[in-house]
Specification:
Elements (H helix, E strand, L loop, with lengths): L1 H9 L10 H14 L7 E2 L1 H8 L3 H13 L3 E4 L3 E4 L4 H20 L9 H15 L3 H17 L4 H18 L5 H5 L1 H14 L3 H30 L1
Antiparallel strand pairs: 1-3, 2-3
Helix pairs in contact: 1-3, 2-4, 2-8, 5-8, 5-11, 6-7, 6-10, 7-8, 10-11
């Protein structure tokens, strides 16, 4: 826990004088997504509150917000823990992704499309792969899909999928071979980007649907094995 709290203390400066539960939840959400608090970790009110310099009530409200987002779970008489997803949760996450992401591409309208964010995410992924940073590649992959959703221009959709992608990262942190999990999809991100650059919206949607189905199968296979091993 001490190693996890050192970078968290650095986040204290982000709170400024207008510290709120929402800002604290933003910080904790990011740290959970980055793997500083892996699934199953018990979150200490005293340690985290002290590191961030916030009151117990503020921290509890932040915990409540993240519990609502399905990132944390409160266990009676035990405390608050980073959630460990069930296989059914992973399947439901991908069901939601397919419904939303494919609908976004289908509803894009006439080209050209604003693809700078997608291009930057692909470039980020290629840099991570060259450096052998496979967790970084997973982050770039999430960025690609977040930018894809952003093409809809809908704050509500962005907010919905922010929570979905954060849950997805909980599954990724359980996997012991991030290269095998993420590397095959780098080129497929580029294929979707090239289809959209060419104005081929239907082809991009087809590629995306197959991509998500394949990714679901791979993630569930690995996740089921890992969760079974740790049970």
């Amino acid at each position: 826990m001490a190693e996890q709290l050192t970078p968290l203390a650095d986040d204290r400066a982000l709170l400024g004088r207008t510290s709120t539960a929402e800002r604290v939840s933003d910080i904790l959400r990011s740290r959970i997504a980055e793997g500083y608090f892996p699934p199953g970790t018990r979150l200490s009110e005293d340690s985290i509150g002290g590191a961030l310099g916030v009151s117990r009530n503020t921290l509890r409200e932040a915990f409540r917000l993240l519990t609502h987002e399905r990132l944390l779970v409160h266990e009676l008489n035990r405390g608050v823990f980073v959630r460990v997803l069930a296989v059914e949760d992973v399947e439901d996450i991908y069901r939601t992704r397919r419904l939303v992401e494919c609908a976004v591409v289908r509803g894009l309208g006439e080209p050209p499309y604003a693809l700078d964010g997608l291009s930057e995410a692909v470039a980020e992924g290629r840099r991570s792969a060259r450096e052998g940073d496979w967790k970084g590649l997973g982050t770039a992959n999430i960025h690609f899909h977040r930018e894809l959703v952003a093409l809809a221009g809908s704050e509500r959709t962005d907010e919905l999928m922010r929570s979905v992608f954060a849950e997805l990262r909980l599954a990724f942190h359980v996997v012991d071979d991030p290269r095998r999990l993420h590397e095959p999809y780098l080129d497929r991100n580029d294929q979707i980007l090239r289809a959209l650059s060419a104005g081929q919206r239907r082809e991009a949607e087809r590629l995306l649907a197959v991509y998500l189905d394949d990714s679901l199968e791979r993630v569930v296979e690995v996740y089921r094995r890992r969760v079974g091993e740790e049970a």
